[in-house]
Amino acid sequence: MYALHDHVLMKKPHACGVNDWEIIRVGMDIKIRCTGCGHIVMMPRHDFDRKMKKVLTKHQDQ
């Protein structure tokens, strides 16, 4: 699945042209940050599950 600080690919690109997002909050709502311009979007988990295409990179815990 996905976890905090994973990079995910969304179905539609952001207005800046980047399709790569970082998950910065996980709960009832998911908060993601665009890796291109830094814009933050918060959406319900149901909407996020529909709009996410795949996980690009998993966050490595140290």
TrEMBL record:
<protein>
    <submittedName>
        <fullName>DUF951 domain-containing protein</fullName>
    </submittedName>
</protein>
<dbReference type="Pfam" id="PF06107">
    <property type="entry name" value="DUF951"/>
</dbReference>
<dbReference type="InterPro" id="IPR009296">
    <property type="entry name" value="DUF951"/>
</dbReference>
